[in-house]
Input
Amino acid sequence: MDNREFENYIIKLKHYLTIKRDYNIYELWKEFYLVHENKTHFNYFESLKKSISTLVKLSVLENIKKEERVHLNKELFSYMEKKFLHMIEKDGFQENFGIIVDWYTYLKNNYYKDFRVETSERELYFLKNIIIKNKIHYENMKIENPYIILKFSECIFYFYNDLSEEKQNNYKYFYQNILLDRIKICKNMNDHDDLSKSIYLYNREKLKGKKFISWFLDYFCGYGEYPQKIIRLFFILHIIFFILMLCPFTEIAHNGVILKSRTNVNMSEVVDIIYFNNSNMLIRGWGKFFPNNSLTKVIVMIEEVLGFVVGGSFVTLTLRKIFRF
Output
C-alpha cells in the first residue's frame, strides 16, 4: 500500500476511537499488517507505534477476552520479529539496533500496560539471540553509542524480572553480562547514581541462590552500595546488648556501685546502661563504668569487636563511594 493508504488507516483508527462506530477489531488488526508491510524507516516506526497504541485502546474498549489479547500479542510479536531480522540482514545490525531498542522500550513503557497482557520469554530470547549473533557489532555500539546500550539494558532488566525464577536461570549469565556492560558505561560517564544502582543489581543477582546471605547484605548495607543501611545493624546490636546487660547474670559497676542492684531498674540506670553500650560499640572507653564479672567482660569484648566491624564497614563503604572515580 502507498503512503496515502497508510495515512488513511491511521486517520480511520483515530476516528473510530473518538466516534463510536461499528467496526470489526480483528479486521482492523489484519489491515494493520497489510498497511505496514515493507516499511522500515524510523519515521515509519513512530507511526507504527501510534497505530498500535490506537488499536490497543480500541481492543480494550471492545472488551476482548484475555486469551484473544494474548493471541493478538503473539501475532504482533512474530510479525515484528521477522521484520527486525529482515532489517538486520538487509541493512546491518548497527543501523537498526536503535530502532529495535526503541520498539522494546515502547513495549515496556506503554504497550503491555495498556493492552493488559503479560510479557513472555520470547522477548528476552529474541534480544539475547540478536546480541549473540551480532557480538562484534554490539561491542562497537558500546563505544559509539553507549546511551542506546543503557536503554537496551533497561529493556533486558524489565523482561528478565518478569520471568519466573525457573526461567530466569536460562538467562542469568546473559543478564549479568548486560549489567556489567551497564556498569562500565556508567563509570565512563561518571554517572554515580546509576553506577551504584547497577552494581547493586549485579550483586543481588550473583547472590540470588544464597537467600540468607543475600537478604543480610541487602538489608544492612545494600550490597555495599548503600552504607547508610549499616545504621540499622548498629541499632539492632545496641538493643541486643542492652537486653543482655539487663539480665541478672551481667554486672556493670558505676563508681564501685553495681547497677541493677534493686528489683526494678530505674530510668537513670537505663540511661547508664545505654551509655555504657554506646561507649563499647564506638570503642571510646568506659570512664566511670566497667564490667564487674567475667561473663560481662566477655560480652563487652564481643560488643567492642562488633562495634569495630560495623563502624569500620560504614567508613570503608562510604569512602569507597566518595572516591570511586
Summary: Strands lie at 252-254, 257-258, 289-291.
